[in-house]
Amino acid sequence: MSHVVVIEDESTVREVLRFHLERAGLRVSAFESTRGTEDALHSADVLVLDWMLPGESGLSFLRRVRSDPELRRLPVLMLTARAAEAERVEGLETGADDYLTKPFSAAELVARVRALLRRTQPDAPQTMSNGPLNIDISAAEAKVGSRRLNLTRREFDLLAFMTQNVGRVYSRTELLDRVWGADFLGGERTVDQHVTQLRAHLEDEPSRPAFLETVRGKGYRMRAWTEDDTT
């Protein structure tokens, strides 16, 4: 799970940031100032940094971050109420990778953090399998054995995500965020419908699923295939 460090002095804003980033499946460490952040930063994948902070400004702290060889490549998203072009340029030239002006939407925040993660983390595998199930991301193709599955784009995205995370349980809310996106306006019933449709494609007996399992009270999981299983 990707780790995001948030440094924001306004408690309400800080908790809103934490809520939406965690809802998007990210691990969050949140601080009200730059003090005591060193350990968290050295395990972080992205830093979300407010410009206006008590004591040391975000801009000054960013200069220190960029002077640390171990943190030099840490992606930084800077938050600020400063809208002037010269100030945005100053933040970027100091070492920020992206810039978000307050007020901003939760969907845009999550999208920008995910974009920074994609730039720095290894590409996801283009092919994956789980027993007889084989998925080719680049070709947008899924097969069970030699049988090609005729899936919609969203069905394919959901199947690929669950196969990439075999054995992990995801709630309906998590799946909406991770597959449909944080700005999707539909409800959790959408996930149930797509799971039902996928089971009709995948399973010999959809009422007794061998792949997509329901975990009562928690959500869904892609069951790990074993050598004892048969198609």
TrEMBL record:
Domain OmpR/PhoB-type: residue ranges: 125-224
GO MF: phosphorelay response regulator activity; transcription cis-regulatory region binding
Domain Response regulatory: 3-117
Location of the DNA-binding region in this protein: 125-224
InterPro entries on file: CheY-like_superfamily, OmpR/PhoB-type_DNA-bd, Sig_transdc_resp-reg_C-effctor, Sig_transdc_resp-reg_receiver, WalR-like, WH-like_DNA-bd_sf
UniProtKB keywords: DNA-binding, Phosphoprotein, Transcription, Transcription regulation, Two-component regulatory system
GO-annotated biological processes: regulation of DNA-templated transcription
4-aspartylphosphate modified-residue sites: 50
A Pfam family this chain is assigned to: Trans_reg_C
Annotated SMART domains: REC, Trans_reg_C
Cellular component GO terms, alphabetical: cytosol; protein-DNA complex
PROSITE patterns: OMPR_PHOB (PS51755), RESPONSE_REGULATORY (PS50110)
Protein name: DNA-binding response regulator
Originating species: Deinococcus cavernae
Lineage: Bacteria, Thermotogati, Deinococcota, Deinococci, Deinococcales
